[in-house]
Amino acid sequence: MADYYTLLTNAGIAYETACKAAGTPIKLTQISVGDGGGTVYNPAATATALKREVWRGPLNALFQDEKNPSWLLAEVTIPPDVGGWYVREAGLWTDTGILYAIVKYPESFKPVLATSGSGKEFYIRSIFETSNASLVTLLIDDTVVKATRAWVMSYFAEELGKLDGKQSVRVAASSNIVLNGAQQIDGVAVIAGDRVLVANQTLAKDNGLWIVANGDWVRASDANSSAKVTPGLTVMVEEGTANGDSLWHLTTNAPITLGTTALTFKMLAGRTGIAAGTYKSLTVDEYGRATAGANPNTLAGFGITDALGINATAVAARKLETARSIAISGAASGSASFDGSANTNISLALADSGVAAGTYTKIAVNAKGLATSGTTLVASDIPALDWSKISSGKPNTLAGYGIVDSYTQGQTNSVVSTSFANFSAASLQVPAFINGFTDNHSSRYWRANGNIYVCLDVARWVSSGTDALVMFTLPPGFRPLSRVSGAGGWATSGQLGFGLLSWRAETTGEVVLDYSIGSASGVSGYRCQFSFCVQAA
Q1: Number of other residues whose CB lies within 10 A of the CB of residue 495
Q2: Of the residues 97, 125, 160, which one is the last residue of a structural domain?
Q3: Tens-place pLDDT, residues 481-529
Q4: Which of 354, 309, 346 is nearest to 328 (CA)?
Q5: Per-position b or e across 218-245, b if 16+ CB within 10 A of its CB
Q6: Are both 76 and 221 inside the same structural domain?
């Protein structure tokens, strides 16, 4: 047997058996210490009390050993105001007063401040084995239990380790790493003792909070058990190019078995890679963090698909929400309702210009091409034109000009030839013609400047002194011009020495010589030459 030990007493075993049978917990409430009657001895299982008890108080703690679930650890703290004796034995008591276990304790003196000049808290831990540790319950009176500083610190460390908020880590590894030795992570050289958040291992069960070591890394003490790694675990990252000053949390839901359950850590707050600035368009992650930003200037850039671009057509348009009226006014009027669902027609009514309906040879139009007045052309409306202003389409016949009251050239030649033939007729009372012409013309008539010229050369006349001689008849619409041989102007009539040359063109178109006046010069006075120009009136 070991030098120092804890034994379940026979009474304690019987009590435990009864509790198991009844299905009730084993309730331990107190611990007592004694001086062994002044000497060290070996306690036995048959004991029902300590040899000499010097102090009794409530248990501070009773819990299972992490590595040996059947082991129970009982702890008590003896206050500094009691003592003055040695501790050589101890006992654990049930709530019914049964000595459940007895302890052989290393001989230790417990001073008291009042008599020894100094005092101290005395801490006792007893380990004992039970067949079913889960049945053992610690009943504590909070008004009398005291704890040691070490116990309190250990307790706080354990309880803080169960909180979701963890002590910050130096860096976060967002890619798979080897959990061994010092190395470079996110631009930081980590060394032994540094805390690291491992968030993206190939085997996600290995994610978590780790302590760097020169050999294999170990999990951080505040995250090294399933009870300490719970959903919502959060940790701040102190340094790193990408992950420095960021907050991470565990998104894996319960239940979690550390080393078995795949753990997923995500950045809750921190750098996302987007530069500080103002953006029109943002990409936001599941936590509302901006992960990308842009300043688009097009509909497509904003992801808008139901708007019409400035260079597009209304392909997607179907119908206006409210029909609109389209009206036209001014020189024409009309209206129609349009909602975009189908084509629409507008019947236009032209405005009255004030001009009555009709046909006009002269009209005035305004700037819009509307007739504002209509009249008949007068001579002053036709500008003076000469042939130099007409470059094409000149007619070369009377018919081309629409003239119907004049002889053609052929018709005129026929009339003249007939007239000359008549001069030789016996009825003309003309005795003779002098052969040849005093003006040296080679023919009796000719054309020049659009006129017909006739030359008569007479030597004498047989006259009764009263009758008029009809010389020839002109075509309708023509009249003669005459002159006496020698100087003289063209005229419609001329006084001769032997008579008056005149015509009755207005009535008969006849050219006559009235020689009733006679001549004082005798026969020689009738010798003369007449030249006629037949010209349109």
Answers
A1: 10
A2: 160
A3: 444 333 333 333 443 433 444 444 344 545 554 444 344 433 333 334 4
A4: 346
A5: ebbebbbeeebbbeebebbbbbbebbbe
A6: no
The identity of residue 69, as a single letter, is: P
- For the segment 385-433, what is each residue's pLDDT rounded down to a tens digit? 676 777 777 787 888 778 877 777 777 777 666 655 544 443 333 333 3
Which tokens go with 498?
Answer: 């032997």
CA dist 372 → 220, 351, 366, 404 (Å): 104, 12, 7, 37
Tell me the average pLDDT of the chain: 74
Q: Are residues 34 and 102 in the same domain?
A: yes
Classify each residue of 121-152 as buried b or exposed e, where b means 16 or more C-beta atoms within 10 Å of its C-beta.
Answer: bbebebebebeebeebebeeeeeeeebbeebe
d(C-alpha 471, C-alpha 463), whole Å: 14
Give, rounded to a whole angstrom, the gap between the first and last alpha carbons of the chain. Answer: 175
Range of the domain at 430: 409-536
Provide the residue count of the chain: 537
Closest CA relative to residue 231, chosen from 279, 205, 265, 198? 265
Q: What is the distance, to the nearest Å, from the Cα of residue 284 to the centroid of all Cα atoms in its chain?
A: 20
Q: Quick one: 423 exposed, middle or buried, by C-beta within 10 A (0-12, 13-18, 19+)?
A: middle
Paired tokens of 54:
């010097």
HEC profile of 203-241: CHHHCEEEECCCCECEECHHHCCCCCCCCCCEEEECCCC
> Are both 140 and 117 inside the same structural domain?
yes
At residue 502, the pLDDT reads 44
Tell me the three state secondary structure of residue 150.
helix
> Please, where are the H alpha helices in 180-319?
none
On whether the CB atoms of residues 264 and 252 are closer than 8 A, the answer is: yes
Closest by alpha carbon to 456, among 475, 436, 473? 436
Q: Kind and range of the H or E element at 421? A: helix 409-423
Point out the domain boundary residue: 269, 294, 329: 269
Continuous H helices in 69-183:
113-116, 149-161
Q: Which amino acid is at 269?
A: A
Is pTM, for the whole model, over 0.85? no
Q: 417-426: long-range contacts at Cβ-Cβ below 8 A with a sequence spacing of 24 or more? A: 419/454, 419/472, 419/473, 420/444, 420/445, 422/472, 423/456, 423/471, 423/472
Q: What share of the chain is helix, strand, coil (3-state, %, to 5)?
A: 15, 35, 50
Q: How many domains does the chain have?
A: 3
